[in-house]
Structures are given as C-alpha cells and as structure tokens.
Design goal:
elongated, 1011 residues, 7-stranded mixed beta sheet, alpha/beta
C-alpha cells in the first residue's frame, strides 16, 4: 500500500514528501480508517507531524522520544531513508461499518516498532475521527429520529475504541497530550490524560448538543481557529447576568407564539413553536456582530417564524401585528394591494447590548422560497458601497434564515452562495440559519434531499457548519456567538443548522398527523425549550421558580396591553419599507401629487468631454488593433456630432449620470465587452493582464462606475441587483441578459419583486432590465426577450382612455415601464430619465441586436443636447422619400427593429403613401400622443399594426385593445379598426433556420403592403 521510496532520496526531500505530498503510511492509514471520506485528507495528520518536526528542530525534547529517534535518523544523511523510516500500524481493510479484526497491537506493528508510538498514533487517529465525524453522534435532534440519537443508525465504527484495538482495560492508560491529541487542554498545565478522559472530553466537545463540520475546509488557519474555540475545557460558561439575558429573550420568543396561539387559534401565522430558540440566537448574533463593527444587518427569511422575528428582533410594534390579525387596520391609510402579514418587510434602528445602535431591515418576500436570498445580498453590497467599506466588508451583514427543505432543494440558494468571493458581488460573508423542523410541508427529508443534512451544500464554499439542538438554548447562544466571530474574522459564510420540530402542520390550521403520525406522536411528548431551560436554571440555583414566573407574567401583560391598543392602531407606512430613502418622496406622498417632467438633455461640451475619455486609453497600454478602430470611430462621431451609435449613446448616458452624482452599476453575463461585442467598457492590454475602464476616469469628483461580468446565473444575479437597487435612489442599477429570453430563469424575481413589489410592499426600485430582443433568423432560443410577458403584467387599464389627471400621472402610477427604443438618443434619454425624477420605477429595456450597428439606428449630437425621450417617433420621411401626411393612405404602427425591414420593403416598392409610426414606450401606453398623431393624418384608409413576433407573442395582445380605445377618442377614425400583420401563431418563439425565417418575414411584409 505504500509508495516505494528510493534510498537515493535525501532525508529532507523524503520528509517533504511525507508532509506535503501525503505519501507516508500515515496517510495510507487515514484512507483506511474512513473509507471514502475525503474529509480525512483535506486537513490531514500531516499537519501535526509538520508541527512536531518544526518543534523538534527547535527543541528535540519537545516531542516523544520515539519521534526524536525518528527525526534524528532522517537528519543522519548516512542512514538510508528505508532504515530511518518504519511503518506505523496499518489498519486491516475491513468492510465499512464492520468491526471484525480491527486495528490491534499484535497484527499492526512491524518488528522493532515502539509500542508507545503505536499507541500515540492510534489515539491521534481517534481524535481525528471525532473532529471529522463526531457530529454523527451528537445529540442534535430533540426528536431523536434523524440525527445523532437515532438508534436505527449505528455509531460510526471509527468512533469506537474497538476499532483501534483498544479494550476497556486501556481506558486508564495515560496518553501524552500534544499535536493531534487535545493540545489546548495542556494549557492548564496538564501533560497527560487517560484514554478514557480523552474520549470523555471528545464526546463533550463534538457529541453533545451541537456538532460541527469543519474538516472539509482546506485552510489550516481556519481549522485551527475553530479548534482554538472548540477544543477547550468548557467552551462556554455563562454568568448569572448572561443567563438572565438568555432567559429574557427566550421568554419573549416563546410567549409571543403562545400569545398568538391563544388569541388567534384559527389564523395562519406559520409559528416558530419547536424552534423558538432561533430568535434569541439571532439577537446574540446581532449583538456580537455590532461589537465587531457591523452597523447594518439585512435579514431575509420565508414565512416560518417571520412574525416572531418582526416582533422580537426587528421590533415591529406588536400593536401593528395584532391589528393585522384582527383585521382592524384602516385600509384608507395604505394604498396598494398589501400582502399577508408574514410576507411584509420592515426597517428599524434599535440598540444592542454594547450600547451601539444597529440598522435592521427585513426584506419583504413572496411565498417563492429562497427568492429573497440574492435580494438580501444585493442590498448588503449596496450598503457596503455607500459606507465605502468594500475592502474590509465589516459594516454591513446579511443574515439569511432558511427552511431545511428549501435550503437543500432551491437552486437559487446555490446561485446566491456562489457570490461569496466574486469581486463585485461579495458581501464579506453571510450567516445562514437553517430553521430545521425536519419536514418540508408534508415531505420527509428522505424524499426531499439526497444528503444526510440539508446543509451539505455549504461544503462547496468551504463554510463551517454548526448543527445544534434547538432545545439547548445555551448551546444555541454559543453557536450564534461563534458564527458571528467567524464571519468577522474571515469574511466568509457560516451555516447554523438549528434542529427542532414544527409543533403544528405547515400552518396552524393543517393536520400534520395525516402524513407524519409517528413524528407528531413524538412532538406531542416534547417539552418546550422554555420549560427545559427554566428547569435547568432552577435546579442549578441560578433563579427561583417565582422569579421566572413573575417575569413571564410581566411579558404576557405587555402583550395584553398591545393587544388592547391594536383596535385603535393606525399603521405607519414606514413599517413596510425595507429601505426608508430619507428625503425622497414616499409612495403615499406621490399618490396625491403630479410631478413635472425633468429635462434629460446635456450640453454639447460635457458630451464631447466624455467622448474623448471613452475613446482613449493610457500610454503604454496596448489595445487590440480592431478595437482601436472602434474606439477612434466612437470619438470621431461625438466630435463631429453625426452617426452616434447605440453603445456610444449608452456610454454618454452613464457618463453624464456619474458626473451628476449617481452611482452606476451594470451587471450580467459578459456585460464588460457586451454579448454582441458592442460595449467594450473594459479594455484589456494585449501584452499583460492589465485592464482599463474609461468611464471610471471622467473626473476626479465623479461617482462610481461599476461594470462586472456576473456568474452564469440569472435568478440569483437579477435578485442581487434588485436588492442593490432598493438601497438608494441615487443608484442606477442595470442587469443585462446575455439574450433576452435568459430572463426566463429569473421569472420569480420579475413576477414577485419587479412587477408587484411596490404595490404589495411599498418596496421602490429603479432597476433596469436590459433585454436583447429581435428576430434575425438565429433560432427560437436567441430571438425573443418575451416582450409579451412583461406587457401582460402591466397595470394600466386598456378599456378606458385616461383622464387629463391620469395622463399626467401615467408614470407615477404604473408598476414598471416597458420600452423598446430604436435610436441611441432615445436610449440616452430613457436611462437618464430613470434618475431625473422624484420617484423610481423598474424599467424593462428591450434592445435590438440588429440596431446596435444598423445605419438607421444613428443619432446626432444635437439629439442628446436638446429635447428628451420620445414616447413615439413619427415618420421622418414625409416630404422626402414619401408624400406628406395629407397624401398618406396607410399608417403602420409598430415597435422595435421590425422598422428596418419595413423601411427597406417600402423603399424597394417605391411606396409613397405608407407611413410608419414607432411606439418607443409601450407601458405606460402613449394614449394621448397616439390620438393626436393619428388625427394629424387627414386621409387614412387603413391602420395596421405590424410586428415580427407571432400573433400569440410580442405586443399585439397588449396594444390591440389600447389602440381601439385610442381610436374612439380620435376625430376621424372612431369607427376604424386596426389590422394585424405579423407571423402566425406559434408554439416555438421563432423559426429554427434562416430560410424559414426569411419566408415568414416576406409573408408579413407582403401582408402590410399588399404586394
């Protein structure tokens, strides 16, 4: 089993092989001891041998005499390595899980091997086994059905003394402490412990109410940091005052659930009974984190326990919560649809035990489990940016509370974890708390995941995993405290898996015994955590039963007071807001105002200055020769004021906004260059790894420009950018899809947050979704940004022509905007309009791949320095290529790049009587502009809607009723209808080959012109 080592190999070289390449028999032995367990290799015993070797070089007496002889032999270059090295005990290769013929002295040693070394090595391996697999024996499951105490699962053999050839008679043997054998216990002066006491201590450290998985972490520094805090006598011992605080927090947490159960027994509340210890744990986490420098904590969680967290952690007034249960909330004070109480968010500033204040925000969430995870991280990143803390990442912390089934089953969890070390997405580590009630609605864990624990996913990011019994509140407090210190030290994620139960069904009106009869028989016998803890405190003499009962009575009385006040409670809309946006008008204020349109044009001098910067690069920076031509042409078009293309118009918008104090962030797959090689925002030196981003060098006083290629994720990254946009109205945040249809996998974010977030939660956002769209014969996967889906979610009523007041408020009242601009200038103005208003609305910005370089999609500099965004664009060919409006017989209304095909067809036919009218913004709909423009054509015989998408896709189903409503308001065309011209209905988005694509295009063009 051992690799043959040549006697010619030097002693020192051999030692390096032993320690670094893991070729020694020790490592072979480790592979035998835990068959198939890579964890044994990740932080190996070689570390301890390394420590001994270094210690021996300084002081030979610091190691056991047998190791002294061994290292002396290695040092003696005259001794062949084969003679210097003698194999340690080799484990018999018994099948996994059996204990026949285990390691023993008689059959595991070779001649002359020191039995003391044999003993020391075996105890080392035993200690290592507890470090790696002790959690499998820990008492982390109060129900004793899934983990540790489950008697149906045998104790791992490597955690038994028989596995190493020991008997009960060996338990009294004295073992020298040192590398690999509880070295931290020696700090109190002990140099030896009996084998029995070593096992007893290992059981206490790794197999009590918590179990820790950390040996998968490849960093020795991190593992040793944890051992320094774990492998010590009594890792936690609380004072009377500390116990009083723990008890107080636990009473509030458990009493809240009991109070709701008493007052509202038939209401859904998704209570935390069985896991109430999570709330005191989170408060401990926040307190310790604040002591370590955190100023803002962003929380994300699903429905389970949310009301308890709102009440006891975020400090939402209990009167408000009870009023929502009673249904006594005055609906006249809140506009919008609202949402169920266990979906709402909140922000609040509260004191901590250190005397410092912390800003807490709980992100509102839908019932789509884990959808809020990336939103929390995006908001946390934005806070770090605004605090200028992107280097240390110590002032803002994201905390995510997960259900056990959701954590293991929802892919967005992995997408979110993938942000951990990405340069523009990292938040300095997230604390993940799994509220593990050992069931997913009605599904047992064995049907909902393929791993022993729900937390096993976290091994992919080398996070420590702390499993803890929810019924041991002191252990829970210790674990949350430890996780806070881990995050502050290493700025990486930590996982806390709190194992408890769910007292009721999925909700309080459900009957769980239908599907889990045995589990709920056990739950019925469980003692509540507050009873468990009070019994402990009374028995140890910390508090009397009278003291505890009086405190419980006082807390209950406060709940009763709040309950009485609830009937008169008037909610403050601020309660709902995840971010307050101080100094910015609230949705309620905007509901009664009509805001003026603010200009978006910029003077030519500023534009030309930006043009010089974005078309140049530093000296001694070698730009790709083809890119030089592109950049030079970019600068030339701005200087001459003619022929400015799409990417240049976009860059001018970003540049001007940053000069005005807006932080611009662009994110998505391949956005730095642009999927279609159009943007080139980041230049790469052709002779080095250096990069240069021109938009970061406009002016020393400019705001930040962030542009970053994202991970290959849509759901996670879009959620992240949405969360980022929530933090401040001064952030222009753009998420770009590689192709528009890629937004499909982020549909939850679009549906639940972007389309409905403000109406449900008053959660304001100016997020821009940049979505490539257009039919170019490239097949069904890369043609459509699914325009129809966005338009279907539009909230404007198509049945009625808006009143004058509503026409002025169209943008204020819409849930989001949908635009499909066709000129660089209109792109420029729509991006600037996002930041030049006293409110924010999300923007679905469709852009054509074809128009990136098409000669019809060019703008002059005057279009940037004058005017603003054009809601509709009339035909510029009147009196030139076509006749006047009076001579026009057919008006073709359209949106997007289909204009180029229509323009070419009209020119080929020499048609002088057909005019085009482009709708640049589809939602809100340009009712008034269309009415007035259509009326400006006195002699129309036909009005056509043309699109390149199939009949059941694109904008037709959206515009059709609105066009008819608009025509009824015209002077001359009240009785006209609009004829559809486009592709026939289809199940596939587009044709799969260029030939068929062209045939379909020719067909609808012929339908438009009649020839």
């Amino acid at each position: 089993m051992l690799r043959t080592i040549s006697s010619k190999t030097s002693s020192r070289s051999f030692m390096k092989n032993v320690l670094l390449k893991r070729t020694s028999c020790l490592n072979t032995q480790k592979r035998c001891i835990v068959t198939g367990t890579d964890s044994f290799l990740s932080t190996s015993n070689a570390q301890y041998i390394d420590e001994m070797f270094e210690a021996w070089k300084q002081d030979p007496s610091s190691v056991h005499v047998s190791w002294n002889a061994y290292f002396n032999n290695l040092k003696n270059t005259g001794t062949p390595t084969s003679a210097a090295f003698q194999a340690p005990p080799i484990l018999i290769g018994t099948p996994q899980g059996t204990q026949s013929n285990p390691l023993g002295v008689g059959n595991a040693t070779s001649g002359g091997f020191d039995s003391n070394v044999n003993l020391h090595l075996k105890v080392q391996l035993l200690c290592r086994a507890y470090q790696v697999r002790g959690h499998l024996k820990a008492h982390i499951d109060p129900l004793k059905i899934s983990f540790g105490d489950d008697k149906t699962k045998p104790t791992p053999p490597e955690l038994t003394i028989e596995y190493y050839g020991f008997s009960k008679a060996d338990l009294d043997k004295e073992i020298t402490l040192g590398p690999g054998i509880l070295p931290r216990f020696a700090k109190d002066g002990r140099t030896t412990m009996t084998l029995g006491n070593i096992i007893k201590e290992l059981e206490a450290l790794y197999c009590k109410s918590y179990g820790i998985q950390y040996t998968h972490i490849p960093s020795k520094v991190k593992c040793e940091w944890l051992r320094d805090r774990i492998e010590i006598p009594n890792p936690y011992k609380y004072t009377i005052d500390q116990k009083r605080q723990i008890l107080d927090r636990l009473i509030w947490s458990t009493s809240f659930e009991s109070f709701l159960s008493t007052k509202f027994p038939n209401d859904k509340r998704f209570g935390l009974e069985g896991l109430e210890a999570v709330v005191p744990g989170i408060k401990t986490l926040i307190d310790r984190s604040v002591e370590l420098g955190v100023e803002d904590v962003v929380l994300g969680m699903a429905h389970r326990g949310r009301l308890n967290v709102l009440s006891n952690v975020v400090r939402k007034p209990n009167e408000s919560i009870f009023a929502e249960f009673k249904g006594s909330t005055n609906q006249d004070t809140i506009e919008g649809s609202g949402d169920v109480k266990y979906h709402l968010g909140m922000n609040y500033q509260r004191p901590t035990t250190s005397g410092k204040y912390v800003n807490l925000s709980l992100v509102a969430n839908p019932s789509h489990l884990e959808a809020q995870d990336p939103v929390v991280l995006g908001r946390t990143r934005a806070l770090l940016h605004d605090k200028k803390d992107l280097k240390e990442k110590s002032k803002a912390l994201g905390v995510l509370l997960h259900g056990d089934a959701a954590f293991a089953g929802q892919g967005v969890v992995y997408e979110t974890m993938g942000f951990l070390t990405l340069p523009e997405y990292s938040t300095g580590g997230t604390i993940h708390v799994i509220i593990n009630n050992q069931i997913g609605f009605t599904t047992d864990p064995r049907f909902s995941r393929s791993t022993p624990y729900p937390s096993d996913l976290a091994k992919a990011i080398d996070a420590p995993i702390f499993h803890c019994n929810a019924n041991d509140i002191e252990a829970v407090t210790y674990i949350f405290h430890l996780a806070a210190e881990w995050r502050a030290t290493f700025h990486t994620d930590a996982i806390i898996d709190i194992v408890g139960w769910r007292k009721h069904g999925h909700n309080e009106t459900d009957q769980p015994a239908f599907t889990q009869p045995l589990m709920y028989q056990k739950i019925a016998q469980q003692e509540n955590v507050i009873d468990t803890y009070t019994d402990k405190l009374i028995k140890e003499g910390s508090f009397t039963k009278k003291d505890i009962d009086e405190h419980k009575k006082w807390v209950w009385g406060l709940f009763e007071d709040s309950f009485e006040k609830a009937k008169d409670y008037v909610p403050n809309q601020r309660e709902w807001l995840t971010a307050a946006w101080e100094g910015f008008k609230s949705p309620k204020e905007l509901a009664t105002e009509i805001l003026p349109h603010e200009p978006t044009n910029v003077d030519e001098g500023t534009l030309k200055g930006i043009g010089k910067t974005i078309s140049s690069w530093p000296e001694n920076f070698e730009v790709h020769r083809n890119l030089k031509r592109i950049l030079n042409n970019r600068g030339k078009t701005i200087e001459t004021g003619e022929g400015i293309d799409w990417a240049t118009g976009e860059a001018l918008a970003y540049g001007t906004l940053m000069l005005e104090g807006n932080h611009v962030r662009v994110s998505g797959e391949d956005v730095e260059r642009g999927t279609f090689s159009q943007r080139h925002a980041v230049l790469h030196d052709q002779k080095s790894e250096a990069t240069y981003t021109p938009l970061k060098h406009l002016n020393p006083k400019q705001s930040d420009f962030t542009i970053s290629n994202s991970s290959l994720s849509e759901y996670g990254v879009m959620g992240f950018e949405y969360g980022y946009s929530l933090t401040s109205p001064e952030h222009l945040v753009v998420w770009e899809a590689q192709f528009g249809d890629f937004a499909n996998t982020a549909q939850v974010i679009i549906d639940q947050f972007i389309a409905g977030g403000e109406q449900k939660w008053k959660q304001r956002s100016g997020l821009v979704l940049s979505l490539p769209h257009g039919y170019d014969g490239q097949g069904p996967e890369h043609s459509s940004g699914r325009l129809e889906r966005f338009l279907q979610m539009a909230n404007e009523d198509p049945r009625y022509f808006p009143s004058d007041v509503k026409l002025q408020r169209q943008h204020q009242d819409c849930n989001f905007q949908v635009v499909y601009p066709t000129t660089p200038a209109n792109l420029f103005h729509i991006l600037r309009r996002q930041q030049h208003r006293q409110f924010r609305k999300p923007l679905a910005l469709f852009f054509s791949k074809q128009l990136l370089r098409h000669p019809l999609a060019r703008s002059s500099l005057s279009e940037f320095s004058e005017g603003g965004f054009q809601w509709i664009i009339e035909d510029v060919e009147h009196g030139k290529a076509i006749g006047t409006k009076e001579e026009t017989k057919k008006l073709v209304i359209l949106s997007g790049q289909v204009y180029t095909a229509l323009h070419k067809k009209r020119a080929d036919l020499g048609d002088k009587t057909t005019a085009f009218l482009k709708i640049e913004e589809l939602h809100p709909f340009p009712f008034a502009q269309l009415r007035d423009t259509i009326d400006s054509y006195p002699n129309l015989e036909e009005i056509v809607w043309c699109q390149e998408e199939p009949l059941n896709m694109g904008a037709w189903s959206y515009v059709s009723p609105r066009l008819q409503t608009t025509l009824k308001e015209t002077q001359k065309y009240k009785d006209h209808s609009v004829r559809y011209c486009g592709r026939n209905p289809s199940g596939a988005v587009a044709a799969g080959n260029k030939t068929l694509h062209t045939l379909e295009e020719n067909a609808f063009l012929k339908d438009v012109f009649g020839k």
